[in-house]
Amino acid sequence: MKAVVFAEHGPPDVLRVVELERPKVRAGKVLVRVRAGGVQPFDTRVRQGWPGLALTLPSGIGNEFAGTVHEVGPGVDGFTAGDDVLGWTYLNALAEYLLVDADAIAPKPPGMPWEVAGALSASGQTAHTALTILDVHPGDTVLIHAAAGGVGTVAVQLAKAWGAVVIGTASEPNHDYLADLGAIPVSYGEGLVERVRAVAPHGVDAVVDGAGGQALLDSVGLVRAADRIVALVNVELADKVGARRLQPDRSVRRLNELVDLHSAGRLRIHVRGSFDLDQVARAHHEVEHGHGRGKVVVTIP
Ligand SMILES: NC(=O)c1ccc[n+]([C@@H]2O[C@H](COP(=O)([O-])OP(=O)(O)OC[C@H]3O[C@@H](n4cnc5c(N)ncnc54)[C@H](OP(=O)(O)O)[C@@H]3O)[C@@H](O)[C@H]2O)c1
Asked: Which Pfam families match (predicted)?
């Protein structure tokens, strides 16, 4: 099978498409023929060489995917060959075949495009987990930094669905996009506190921080209690200011909730770039520059 690997850390072109042996199915596992996989900023940092992350090279890459069940292992109930699924994994999603735990996949509705399904399981669950940690409820005003990105796009729509008023930060070209998703758009950068106060004079109840640095420091002055900030980046700074770290907490229940919202027309996943497997370096480059709407996906026809 074809798979993306990297044998050294470095820029996007260290990613190679190579031939590997197809994994063999085992008890409790499902072998999936992958059709699409999302690229996260995490992937680009791992490729560059994330300090402290224990990694054996060569390594695969990619944490979220959608595809078709090829074979199920002994003891797996609920899935059979031919089922379309989406799910999450760790550093091996970008390959023609993927061996994955049966409790890390959910059925893909027929109407959900492959690119969307491939881009939902990790970033979408990050957004869901962040809002759950914050206990967002009706009447809250929630500030979301990096609101137009992969996580932010889902966080904005979920927070709206949970009854919150949402303020989202993005550059001006993404303001119409954020307004369409249901957020009040605000530009990031100098003067952010004043711009947020102009739309929320009493400050905000909760913050999802996908930007870090000054955005996190500004948030401390805008939120009533620092422990209602959840930091996706800059976690050491978050510790210092009393904000909470995001602890990944993925589950099929969480994923199904996102899938159901999408099926009900209440969750849109914008795919700004779709790349073939042999263009994976371009996909990484697109994520790495840190700007743009929604998700970047690699497809494997
Ligand atoms: N994806 C995950 O599951 C996950 C999990 C844990 C942590 N994280 C971290 O959370 C952060 C967001 O993740 P993501 O997947 O949403 O990333 P992403 O899709 O690459 O985010 C891109 C977005 O960031 C915005 N942005 C850039 N600089 C900004 C700033 N100074 N202030 C506010 N927004 C800014 C951009 O807006 P403009 O285009 O308008 O400039 C763009 O829409 C990343 O640092 C990531 O490592 C992600």
From this structure: ADH_N, ADH_zinc_N_2
H helix count then E strand count, the chain: 10, 16
Please state, as a whole number, how many other Cβ atoms lie within 10 Å of the Cβ of residue 44. Answer: 21
- Cβ burial, residue 187 (10 Å; 0-12/13-18/19+): middle
Evaluate the omega torsion of the peptide bond into residue 58 and state whether it is cis, within 30 degrees of 0.
yes
CATH of 124-245, one of 3.30.470.10, 3.40.50.720, 3.30.420.340, 3.30.565.10: 3.40.50.720
Q: Hey, where are the domains in the chain?
A: 2-122+250-299, 124-245
Q: Is 110 exposed, middle or buried (0-12, 13-18, 19+ CB in 10 A)?
A: exposed
Domain 2-122+250-299 architecture: Alpha-Beta Complex (3.90)
> How many A from CA of 149 to the centre of ligand 1?
5
Nearest-CA residue for ligand 1 atom 34 is 146
What spacing in Å lies between the alpha carbon of 211 and ligand 1's midpoint? Answer: 6
51 falls in which pLDDT band (50, 70, 90)? confident
Lining residues, ligand 1, CB within 6 Å: 40-42, 122-123, 126, 145-146, 148-152, 169-171, 174, 188, 210-211, 215, 232-233, 246, 287, 290-292
Residue with the two structure tokens 């399981």: 121
Residues 6 or more apart whose CB falls under 8 angstroms from that of 118 comprise 34, 35, 36, 37, 38, 64, 65, 66, 67, 86, 297, 298, 299
* CA 195 centroid distance within chain: 27
pLDDT in tens, 102-134: 999 999 999 999 999 999 999 999 999 999 999
- CB half-sphere exposure, 227, CA atoms < 13 A: 1
